[in-house]
Each structure stands twice: as C-alpha cells, then as structure tokens.
Amino acid sequence: MRYKITGDNLQIVTMELQPNEKIFAEAGAMVYMSANMNMQARARGGLMKGLKRAVMGESFFVTEFWPQGGSGLAAFAGNAPGTIKPIVLDGNKQFMAQRDAFLCAENGIMMDIAFQKKLSAGFFGGEGFILQRIFGQGTAFIHACGDFVEMDLQPNQTIKVDTGSVVGWDSTVRYDIQRAGNIKTSLFGGEGLFLTILTGPGKVILQSMTLHNLASALRPYIGQSSGNTGAGIGSLLGQ
pTM for the complete prediction? Predict the structure, then answer.
C-alpha cells in the first residue's frame, strides 16, 4: 500500500491499493474512491469487537475497502478540521490513542479497549476512562483537531499537558493525572482542574486544539451569524 497525506489542517489521506490488499476505515470517513473499489460494512472481529468499538466512541461497524481488476484508490478524512498521522506498527509495538482518534488502517491492524489503571486518570483525564489500543502489523492512521506536536520522551523524562490535549502515546509511556496547582489556580487559572502527566520512554503526540475547545469558541457566534445573515439578505431585498 502506498499513501499520500495532503492539506494543512484540513487533511485527507489517499491510499493506493493493489488487488491483494485491503484496508478498513471508520464508518463515514471515506471521501472518494476509484470505480473499481469494493466496499462492505462489517462488525470487524465479530459482535464483541463491534460492541467494544461502540464503547470507544467509534461506530459499531467499520467499512472494508479492496480493489478489483487492478490497483485502486480510496481517500479518507476526519469529521473536523485537524491533522492525520500514520502510526507504523511492527507486530511488537502498541499505540494508545484517545477514544475517537482512529481513522483507517491496513488489514493487519487490530484495535481493542485499554482501560486506565488508575481511577483518577479515568475520571479526570480528557481521554476518558477508556482508550483505544492499536496493535498488529501495518500502518494505522489517526486524526485529531488542530496541528500535531510530536515528542520523543527519554526514560523518566516527564511532561505536563493540558488535560484532553493528548492524542496518543507509545504503550511504554506512563500516564497519570495531577491537580493543576492549588485550589485557587485550579478554579481561576483557566487551565482546568487537572493536568495530564506523561513519563517516557516513548513517543507522545499532542494536539494544538481539542474538538471541545473548538466547539466552545464557535458557540457564541453560531446564532449571531445566522441572524446577521438574515438581516443582510433582508436589507438587500428591501424588506
């Protein structure tokens, strides 16, 4: 499989498949495909795997794609402005991701639920109590809001991150939650009540904008924008 990611922060990944290759994607992620591509919705891995995907925030079914009569193309994009990142797995490495980060993957990739070890991380972490564990052999593609910042943490190197801004990390990275300063800082500092603590070794991927923050920033303008548009049209029509 060959692929190309295009765009800045409204990215799309286009895959070129040979006749013996198959990929699968989150339902509704496909943007376009060549005429010789077949597609079929499946509860990949059976009923229990489908239920686990639903718990992770993904759809119960995934859609599988494969070409017929030669090579074929299929392209995928996320449901919000953001970035796409390939995660290459060799059968030994595992990657932990926020519950709605998965976009598409080669057929050799598998996913499962990964529960947080500590209740504090589960209840107060921006990723929630349940994470995606991505493993197997091949390339998986994740998507999240904003731009990505990648860091390779050394053994025992620690960073503190705004809760919810972590897209994913290697399974070798330790994860915990810490209160953001004292009570006054937590309540009035504007950074939330808790910080995510990540300790190496391993790769960490962060996002510059969360979907929650994007929605909060746009919410005050949605109704106002509609009203202004209507007023402008009325003025133009002389009403």
Answer: 0.81
